Amino acid sequence: MTRIPSLLEITSFFAIWLGLWLPFAIPSAIKLNWRPFQPSTAAQKLPLLASLYLLAPHVLWGFCWVEGTSFTTYGMSLAKSQLAAVGWGFGIGSASLALLLAVQYGLGWLDQSPTPEAEPQADLGVYWQVLLLFGLALWIGWTEELIFRGFLQNQLQRDLPVWLATAVASGIFALLHGVWEGKSVLPQLPGLWLMGMVLVLARWVDSGNLGLAWGLHAGWVWVIASLDALPIHTNSKAPAWLTGLAGKPLAGILGLLFLLSTGLGLISWLL
């Protein structure tokens, strides 16, 4: 059987994924007044992201069926060891990022917006929102790790050295965030690229499995999304280049140092 070039498989996957999504995306985009490559609100992004990410595993399952493989080929399974790695990754990712934010809060670099007068109801609403964000973070982490650190990484490694495949996959991961954020993603690109590199490293640490990377990714998403729910945001007491331009942690020196320290921790784990 002739081997299909990896670039053709990657292009086919994303083309089919996009083609199946457009019938849902177009009417939703019109109703929500959303435009690709423009900054989008959570109310615009989440419904579109939900339909997009619901389709992704089905498209990949189709590819697996054609090739006679399964999700385990790409490092994803529901084995007990994998689920344990997810738990460890989530705990490490969320706790370490929360610690960094707690330090910033203690230094007076973060503010919490005033809460509505009906405090018990508002607080209950916030708690439910944070709980729902927990489930959403796990889903986003699972889908993005399966696609980017699983399928895309595997395909690129077929024709490229591992280090180059990792750099390219992380670059694609970073650039695709521009679909939702437009030009505002530009200051975040180095951080998003580094995030992708660190998550591939987590897969290597986990012997090619995605459990640890899934957990780390989900933990980071949950903490960052919870900041908006609380809501907590950076102020002007520290320079934006340090804490993150436009309130985006990955667009600041602290965010980059956080990812670098996580990567160094994973490397020490390997050693």
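Second entry:
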Amino acid sequence: MTYDVTLIPGDGIGPEITDQTVKVLEATGLRFNWDEELAGVSAVEATGTPLPDATVESIRKNAVALKGPLTTPVGTGFRSVNVGLRKEFELYANIRPAKTILPGGRFENVDIVLVRENLEGLYIGVEHFVQIGDDPRAVGESMAIVTRAGCERIVRYAFEYALKHHRGKVTIVHKANILKMVSGLFLEVGREIAQEYAGRVESNDMIVDNTAMQLVLRPEQFDVMVTTNMFGDILSDEVSGLVGGLGLAPGANVGTKAAIFEAVHGSAPDIAGKGVANPSAQMLAAAMMLDHLGELECADRIRRAVVDTIVADGIRTRDLGGTASTEEFGRAVARRAA
């Protein structure tokens, strides 16, 4: 079978790590029709817009995309393309697994999947300034919008994920003690859905600040976590930090119309073109894409290849304490994935 996939190399180090990831995917023996499209700064330079119509249409047609990191200007310029893609394709679930790979770190047995609601909450972007006297920007207001339907969808996704991937527990993370409506609704819905899975998936709930502390005290107590948009954004980076940082963190954005898979880290323009970037996160995201496509054996083969290259072979890029180039690391993983 041949899979039609939209390929967005991205900005900065994106093309380098995506190129190596494509080689690893093709080493598995699977066949792909890659429809390469632009987004981000590279798209602005080529077309004048950060998210060209051609890119949107390609994702709409293929319903699956592998995306490199994109550069988003801070404070000025265009809004995040990632946010635009989430809204365009209703990518309501952001899945961020974090598993210990490198031995000798502070935490040896971290294996956590964070499921983040991707469309609601404060990140919905309903905000404005209020004028007081002569100051038109005296007060900034931002509104968090949480719907029952949105809560139900993401919490159910987390429990179904736990069942599908043979996970034992889901932790519902909230701030219902203070945000009694927006976070209270999330907790209320979460507890209701947890009852439907009683006897099949264990569940508990935890206030977000305590969760942040517990993650660095006893991360082994967590399995699958599900939470709202902003809390998920923050906690997912913390979870990645437990296993060595964003260089080893893949992510998936799954929705009703499409699924987009990506490395979680940024475009790292300071090292772009130097051949030193770590493509591990992009490769692990590609494995998640294969899971989505039902190619579970090949997905596991890629994950094992990445881990064995780093741990058994000792072939590591400089961010992992090694000297391998991006291409050398890619070749090593492709050999093991073949």
